[in-house]
Design brief:
Subcellular location: Nucleus
Number of strands: 4
Main location: nucleus
Oligomer: single chain
Number of helices: 10
Order of helices and strands: HHHHHEEHHHHEEH
Pfam family, one: SF3a60_Prp9_C
Protein name: Matrin-type domain-containing protein
Distance between the termini: 116 Å
Shape: elongated
Helix content: 55-70%
Radius of gyration: 44 Å
Keywords: Metal-binding, Nucleus, Zinc, Zinc-finger
Length: about 230
């Protein structure tokens, strides 16, 4: 800190001659004259001196920032715990209010779904994917899916798989497009019956032949053999 103050003192000694310059008169009505001193110095001084003046201005701004930081630290140290909590709540309330204002500024009269950027998706995209169509699935607990694409994709998602598992039905391609619980159960019964008719039943269909050439199924042959008739 002492080194910085020494540099600032040297800088002030170099630009002290500026006090001997005539006082310039600036037009306050001209909005674009934000730094009249720099413009005046640039007009009457060499480039090296302009650089010195710019450094002087920067040092002044830096000192002002340091003083403000010190005042803020002293102020924080003097606050009680309750005052610090109150100040924090006020800051959070201010942030929430700004967020609410931003949300209210979103113009969405057609109630379009929000995109990844938090803004309504384009209307042409909304029509392309048919997002105005609602599909309800009773197996998913009457959950609504908007658009044909989302509806077709949901049959492989966890919600539908969980619903089918609760019904004791395997989630296969046979049950695609079926959203009604009763329809799913009826189809499952038909599939089980069909699998039962086509299933290999060795006790009825496996054939055995005795010494006399008679043909029996496995169950009958085993019974006769147990009775000693064969």
């Amino acid at each position: 800190m002492e080194a910085k103050m020494k540099k600032l003192s040297d800088l002030l000694s170099k630009v002290s001659w500026l006090l001997t310059l005539p006082i310039p008169v600036f037009d306050k009505n001209v909005k674009h004259e934000r730094k009249p001193l720099q413009k005046y110095v640039a007009a009457v001084c060499s480039p090296d001196m302009v650089t010195i003046v710019d450094g002087f201005n920067y040092s002044c701004d830096l000192l002002q920032t340091i003083e403000q930081t010190k005042e803020n630290v002293v102020k924080k140290q003097a606050l009680t715990y309750e005052e610090m909590e109150q100040e924090r709540e006020e800051e959070e309330t201010q942030v929430d209010t700004e967020s609410d204002d931003e949300d209210q500024q979103i113009y969405n009269p057609l109630k379009l779904p929000m995109g990844w950027d938090g803004k309504p998706i384009p209307y042409w995209l909304y029509k392309l994917h048919g997002l105005g169509q609602e599909f309800k699935c009773e197996i998913c607990g009457n959950y609504s899916y908007w658009g044909r694409r989302a509806f077709e994709r949901h049959f492989k998602e966890w919600r539908h798989q969980h619903g089918m598992r609760c019904l004791g039905i395997p989630n296969t391609k046979n049950f695609n497009e079926i959203t009604n619980i009763q329809e799913a159960q009826e189809l499952w019964e038909k599939i089980r019956e069909r699998q039962g008719v086509n299933k290999w039943r060795p006790d009825l269909e496996e054939e055995y032949e005795d010494k006399e050439g008679n043909i029996y199924n496995k169950k009958t042959y085993t019974d006769l053999q147990r009775q000693g008739l064969i």
